[in-house]
Every structure is written in C-alpha cells, then in structure tokens.
Amino acid sequence: MTKAVLPAELADTVSTATLLVRGGAFRSSYDETCEALFLSSGFVYDDAAAAETAFAQDGSRYVYSRYRNPTVAMFEERLRLIENAEACRATASGMAAVFAALLCRLRAGQRVVSSRALFGSCHYIVAELLPRWGIETLLIDGRDLGAWEAALAGGAAAAFCESPSNPAMEIIDIAEVARLTHATGGLLIVDNVFATPLLQKPLALGADVVVYSATKHIDGQGRCLGGAILGSEKFIREDLGLFYRHTGPSLSPFNAWLLLKGLETLELRVERQSRTAAAIASFLENHPKINRVLYPGLASHPQCALARRQMASGGSLVSFDVAGGKQGCFRFLNALRLVDISNNLGDSKSLITHPATTTHSRLKPELRAELGIADSMVRLSAGLEAESDLISDLDQALDRV
Ligand SMILES: Cc1ncc(COP(=O)(O)O)c(C=O)c1O
Does residue 60 register a pLDDT over 80? Predict the structure, then answer.
C-alpha cells in the first residue's frame, strides 16, 4: 500500500512551491520522508494469471521499468502538476524527449514547420533526420508571424519551436503560433528549456506539447541527464504510448530520484539565477568591450514586449557579443577565474560557452549568421554564486580582451 504525500484534494489548490516539494510523491509501507528509489528493472507477480492480467490491463500496475517505474512515476506526476498538464512521460534526456514527441506522431509524407532558431541537436532532428524519413521540414524565421502563416498554409502535422531560443534568445509568440498551427489541424510542440516550467507556461498559452531537457534547471546541479514530454492524456497515451514503450527512451529510476530532489529547489534556484542574470545583463550592456547583449528581460531586447507578456522574468541565460570576435571571446573565456567553460546550462555553477565552436558548430556558417550566432557571441548561464563575485569575474576577464 502506498500513501500520497500530498492529499489528492489539495493537489489542485496548493501553490507551485508546495507542489515542487510534495507533488506526485507517495510513501511506501515504511513511511519514509524522502521519495523512495525503486531501483528495479522489473516487478514480480503472485501467480501466472496475475502476470497475464497485468499485461492485459495496460498501465494498471508496474510490469517493467522501460514502461513505468514508481520513482519515475513520482517525477512525472510532480512535473505534470507544476505544468498543469493532463499527462507526462519522462525520458532519458532532453533530446530523447524532442525526438519522441515529434516522431511518435509523424508519418512519411507529412510536413513539419519549425522555427530555424534551434539548439544544434534539435536542428539536426528537424532539418536532417525528418527529411531522410520522408517528412518535409520547413524552417522559418520564428519571430515572423507572417512566415508561420505562409508556411502553415500548406498544412502541417506539427509545428516546433524553442522560446527563448538557444543561444540567440529569439522569442516566439506561442499563443499566435498555436492558433495558426491549430487552424491547419497540427500540434504545436514547444521546447521550454530556457524558460523552465516556472517562467513560461506554453500549454496555458495554447501549445499542445511541451518538452524539457531536465538535465538543465530541473536537475540544475550537474548530476544527470533527463527529459520530459507533457501534453494531453490523448497525446501521451495514444500518440506516445506504444512508441515510448517499444523504443525505450525511458528515464532511469536513479535519475528520476535526482530530478525529484532537483524540483524541490527549482523555484529558489531559478528565481535567484534569473535575478543574477538580469544584473549581469545590465552590467554587460554598459561595458565598452561588449557589442550587444541579448537578454529577454532587458528593454533593449528586440522582442522585449512579447517576452514580458509570455514570460514571468528574463530567465537565467544571457548571450552577448564580445569585442574582437572569436579571438576576443576565447581570450575572455580563458581569463575567467570563477565561471566555468562548459556547454551545459541551468546549473548551480555559472557556465559559459562559445556556441559557434561548441553547441552550434555543426551548423553551416551561413545558417549561424542567419541565426545571429556570430563568432563574437558567448552564452552565459548564471549560477548560484554571489552576483557581485560573478560580475567581478566577468569584469576582470573583459579587461584582458
Ligand atoms: C533548448 C534545448 N533543447 C534540448 C536540449 C537537449 O537536452 P539534453 O542534453 O538533456 O539531451 C538542450 C541541451 O542543451 C537545449 O538547450
């Protein structure tokens, strides 16, 4: 017998802070405080008939951890409550979530319209893999609603975007793109990694499916990979159900346990990291060695009004152009004493990367240029260190440029 840590009647009324700590958790017969780690690949049956029943009544009990696992189920339910989605499935990484969310539904001969401002691996799936499997992909400037309208006019089974985009901070008008996508009968899938489940609610804005790399802010402590797909009960059960079960993108129970612990502190971390990122963005904006700062919370961001409308704050990431191009960036990165050079993001440690030579190095230089990913751009993920220490570190490193 298990007991819900949060009484069911409270799940719809308590605030996000409470859900982050208690949502979705259940206690075993040992009445443990911390969520139990069910590190088991399989489950046993009292008799052969019980096994037969378990397989016949799909989902009514745990049968195999590739399908479902109790620790993973706690993580899925907690994230579902926070996102206010009908259903959630956890995946082994963010890319497994993006891949499964798109491929579980698409068929050869269908079309996908996508914003072209995508994380490198998302771009690979949309621009290279889908066409190889007979799915036509149209990549457009996602900031331009006219471009969405024109591309979707030919019909599309799905639309896909990141907002804010990695690393150029393009903002997509999720409500409007959802409306245009629905008019063609398609589903809008939003990668909400940069905004986190706390700062932007794509489903409430009209999107159909939200995907996460839980590796980022949800773990937020550099420990494990993970991902999640959230959407309607129908999408998760009918479109994703068998695909997930038979292709095996499942999250490990150990990682789910870490991610449950990550969710407990998500709000504290994201609030602090976003405040620090905003302060860093303001500092950089006034620095003579910085040519441009892209931060959705700054009034100078070209889509500031839209960002303010659909995001609770500017988030924890800042991209900026350093004087002196690639050489200037490398000199700056190499001079940092506190901030680590790393392509990950959302971590409690501040991390910085040069997208043109790391996360987006596979893209052709012309495409990088179209996406505004100049050789002079770096992307900073604000961590939990003291804001003043981080600004001092950036300042002394910029002196070396
Ligand atoms: C926007 C975005 N989507 C997806 C991913 C992929 O996540 P993962 O590394 O967990 O597969 C990343 C990783 O950086 C990302 O930035």
Answer: no
Q: Which ligand 1 atom sits nearest the alpha carbon of residue 343?
A: 14
Q: Is the confidence at residue 334, as pLDDT, over 90? A: yes
Q: Which atom of ligand 1 is nearest to the CA of 165?
A: 1
What structural domains and CATH numbers belong to the chain? 16-264 (3.40.640.10), 267-399 (3.90.1150.10)
Distance 97 CA to ligand 1 centre (A): 9
Q: Is residue 160's pLDDT more than 80? A: yes
Average pLDDT, the chain: 97
Ligand 1 is surrounded, with C-beta below 6 A, by 93-95, 98, 119, 121-122, 162, 166, 191, 193, 213, 215, 225, 227
Q: What is the pLDDT of residues 119-128, one digit of tens each?
A: 999 999 999 9
Give the whole-angstrom CA distance, residue 54 versus residue 185: 36
Which ligand 1 atom lies nearest to the CA of residue 345? 14
Candidate of 161, 166, 225 to mutate for ligand 1, largest count of ligand atoms within 8 Å of Cβ:
166
Residue 316: which pLDDT band, with cuts at 50, 70 and 90? very high
pLDDT of residue 112: 98
Ligand 1 centroid, distance to 358 Cα (angstroms): 13
Q: Tell me how far CA of residue 142 lies from CA of 26, 111, 264, in angstroms.
A: 41, 16, 33
Distance (Å) from CA 89 to ligand 1 centroid: 16
User: Is residue 260 helix, strand or coil?
Assistant: helix
Atom index in ligand 1 nearest the CA of residue 98 equals 4
> Residue 1 — pLDDT band, cuts 50, 70, 90?
low
Mean pLDDT over residues 174-201, rounded? 98
Distance from the CA of 94 to the center of ligand 1, in angstroms? 5
DSSP one-letter string for 162-224: ESSPTTT-----HHHHHHHHHHTT-EEEEE-TTTHHHH--HHHHT-SEEEEETIIIII-SS--
Q: Which helix (H) or strand (E) holds 54?
A: helix 48-56
